[in-house]
Structure formats: structure tokens, C-alpha cells
Amino acid sequence: MPRLTSFLIKSQSGRETIDFADANALKMLNAALLKYYYKVDSWDIPEGYLCPPVPGRADYIHALADFLGKDTEIDLTKKVIALDIGTGANLIYPIIGSQAYGWHFVGTDIDPTAIKSAALIQSYNPKLKKHVKVRHQANSDNIFNGVVKSQEFFTFSMCNPPFHASQQAAMAGSIQKNVNLNRHRQNRGTAPAANTHGRAPTQALNTLNFAGQANELWCRGGEVGFIKKMIRESVEYKSQIRWFTSLVSKKESLRPIELALKQFNVAEFTRVNMQQGNKMSRFIAWRF
To answer: Are 81 and 240 in contact (CB under 8 A)?
Structure first.
């Protein structure tokens, strides 16, 4: 992919890589991965919006496919319809799920700019048009209400909730990620990127490539508060959504979330662990 080629650099070992501290390089890497693996010819996001790592997002989709396959009441050979809460400007889950499994998606978001971006991605890629729709959630206090239509049924819902509880915590997390990334880059002997736009490498790192809008990174109560709200609202939509699911970033968040699930008398809930390299993640699923 020509656009990615211009971002390639060489480590001291001579291997080609990219500067993972460069937001533009990450975006071009994503575009290349989505084109190669998911046949998405046109993908872009507005500046300052979250640029998700494709392999990590694919983990959630593949783990969901395995999970749904164990439900004897779901026929995966028939139409599977998913609701993606907080689809973002990147539309990443509907892209992967529709192209890897043929699932149909409705992606929702409270941010009008994110919805406009997601709609452009959908409209520019013929392979997505028949499988993906996007809807604006006009009320930021709601999750399902206002986007799930009457008589509509979804096989499952999915969500990657904002896990920070404040803007300060989100900024601290981004700074720490960049510190860790810079340390890793120095340890492996990666050469500084050539396209730092005239800045020294350390100055470029301070730009914080881990972008994201406020609603993408934090909310009141963090991921526990968000998922608790989702659980409360899910009671009203128990006949329209077979499985409710959400990623849980922090292990310590599991106990209060599971207590909330018991409080609302769900018929069944489970935790699915995922691992990619040294990184452990998980999602929870519940139904009524």
C-alpha cells in the first residue's frame, strides 16, 4: 500500500516497522490492514478521534463468534444482527464482523461527527452497504432507548465502553502509554521516525498519538458506571436482544458489575477471557 510505505522505518536489526508513536503511521497501518484482510478500500477517521488497533478489536469479534456458536438457540447460518454501542468514527467492529462472518450491524454513537465519519466509511465501501447501518443516539443519557426500534430484534449487542472516570485519568493514561511506547522503542533500537514534521522525537511523542474524544475515553463512573447503566436499561430490551455483551478493561471492575447483574436477576451471565500476546482482556455477556 503506497501510503503506508512512506511511514516505514528500520530498526537497528534492519527489520522494517513503523513508528508506533506517530498517529498518522498508525492510521495508515489500520487502513492497510482493513484493506488486506477485510477488503475495505476506503477508510479514514477525523483528526483527534480514536484509532483502534485492528487485531485487538478482531479478538472481541472472534470470541463472540465462538461464544454465540455455543448457544443452541442461535442459528449462525441464518441472519445475525448485532448492535454496536459506541461504534465511533472508525466503525471498526461492524467492518470486521460483517466481512469476517457476514453479520449485519447497526452502529450507534452520541457524537454527530463520529456518526458522519462512520456513515462515510459505510457509503464508500460497497461491501459494507448491505450489512451496516449507523444511527445517532441523540440523548447521551440513553444507551438502547432511542436507537432500538419497536419490533426490532438483535442477536447480540456489543460495546467497548469508555473506561476512565475523568478527563484527568484519561490524559494520565495516554501519557503513560506514550512513556511505555518510547521505552519499548528504545529497548528494541528502533530508529526515530523521519516524518516528525520538524520536531525532535521526544517532542513528537508529547503530541500523544493515543487520540480520542472525551466520550471515547471517559465517562462519569468509568466503565463500571457505564456498564451498570447498560444493565439497568437492558431490562427494558430483554425481549429484543438475545445477548448483551461488553468489554471490561479492568479486572477489578468485574466484581461490582457481576453484583449489578445479580441485582437485576438476569437469567444467565458469563465472562469470556481473551489473550493476545501478554495482554489479557475479557468481555461479559448476560441475557434474561
So the answer is: no
